[in-house]
Amino acid sequence: MKTLIVHAHPEPRSLNGSLTDLAVSTLTDAGHEVRVSDLYAMNWKAAVDAADYGPHASTPLRPVRDSGRALDAGALTPDVRAEQEKLLWADTVIFQFPLWWYAMPAILKGWVDRVFTYHFAYGVGEHTDTRYGERYGEGTLAGRRALLSVTVGGPEPHYTARGINGPIDDLLFPIQHGILFYPGLEVLPPFVLFGTDRITEREYPEVAKAWEARLRTLETTEPIAFRRQNFGDYAIPSLHLREGLERAGRSGFGLHVRD
Amino acid sequence: MKTLIVHAHPEPRSLNGSLTDLAVSTLTDAGHEVRVSDLYAMNWKAAVDAADYGPHASTPLRPVRDSGRALDAGALTPDVRAEQEKLLWADTVIFQFPLWWYAMPAILKGWVDRVFTYHFAYGVGEHTDTRYGERYGEGTLAGRRALLSVTVGGPEPHYTARGINGPIDDLLFPIQHGILFYPGLEVLPPFVLFGTDRITEREYPEVAKAWEARLRTLETTEPIAFRRQNFGDYAIPSLHLREGLERAGRSGFGLHVRD
């Protein structure tokens, strides 16, 4: 495997730091190649702005079109080009981050906003009344796999079907489906640690063991069965899921996973 | 009303820029006070790091605890203190932003990550086995109201109950419930414009009219009926919604809105 780890935590000696270090050593020891994008160490620029597109930034700025033009001309900034190249090099991408306010830390969202440009991660393929692009199971990153490794401060019961924060699968859906599956990545079930506000050094060996077990089985883990866009489940151009495909009672985000 | 508008778009001459300008003039003309936090113009720092907590940054850094200690000591950075003061000044907060990758732009997520510190937006009130803090309907910002004004590039059908991207209400739930309702804000139904990748100058007057109508009725608009945490709907400490409260068939995020 060739694994890219995108790491987003400000403190190297944090649980997130330990999990990334463990992923590097576990995968390397197993003979795999590993690269790490440590966003804080790289001082990653989070905000999309005109500087991202050089001479292709129009006046007024139009991020969608301008990012596509800059990509097509090979004129994106070196930091963004390097991340796109790492994604194309990798067959597996791990995202290591704490869930802050039910979403990614800003620095990681800024990695997505800037690296996932038009013509790279979206606006790929034909967009007509009968075909709405290559996305959700197709696209630039098709054939590659992704895995979220997320630390969550609160207790697991708060993130279950009836838990007050909402089910963790639904909270991660906009990332796993909307960001990762969209440009073609197959998404493995996430590795989520709950209650990390209260975790102690004494509990870490158990956590490490569970993470190593996931890392050692990455190649044989079945991805989440998100429905692909262009293979009959959705009507085009409405992109509505056709009636009758889901188990009775399914609704919301769960509709977009095959039973 | 005293309204704070938190604005997150890199181009002043964008649809988002026009909507914020219109909000300022409409509310001012109606005799209200308005302040704007234009995050790009302010060159807002998006990433949480040790510099946020000055002498209260511990080694290793612990963002939760350190942000609370810095808050308690009045030692947060001036940019964060200014935003917290604006939130306490306002009775209404409008967030104007484009939906990028089914979430806020990174610069706005960084406003949340940095301004919503421990002891300000979370970690407020008693946390015991019988009481789990003042949150979800209580907290520092209780009694204030919030409204998302969001531009969405894709077409509305893709964001409906069976639409491929998932229902817009569910995509906004982590923001509306997890970020805004959590510290006590009442959340008004969002103002969402779809298909903005293709909107033309000719269509803008219709859009402006709809936005003005929402702005003029802010004070009389009913908020989304999110369930409050500490008023009987949830068991403590599991924070599970008690059985039988919801309409048959409700599940997922929808459980947390009263019928």
Automatic annotation (TrEMBL), chains A, B:
Does the entry feature the keyword Ribosomal protein, yes or no? Answer: no
- Which InterPro entries does the UniProt entry name for this protein? Flavodoxin_fold, Flavoprotein-like_sf, NAD(P)H_dehydrogenase_qn
Q: What is an example of a GO molecular function annotated in this UniProt entry?
A: oxidoreductase activity
Q: What is its EC number?
A: 1.-.-.-, 1.6.99.-
Provide the alphabetized UniProt keywords.
Oxidoreductase
Domain Flavodoxin-like fold residues, every copy: 1-215
Q: Does the keyword Phosphoprotein apply?
A: no
Q: Which family does this protein fall into?
A: Belongs to the NAD(P)H dehydrogenase (quinone) family.
**Xref: PANTHER family:** NAD P H OXIDOREDUCTASE-RELATED (PTHR10204), NAD(P)H DEHYDROGENASE [QUINONE] 1 ISOFORM 1 (PTHR10204:SF34)
Q: What is this protein called?
A: NAD(P)H-dependent oxidoreductase
Q: What is the protein's species of origin? A: Streptomyces chisholmiae
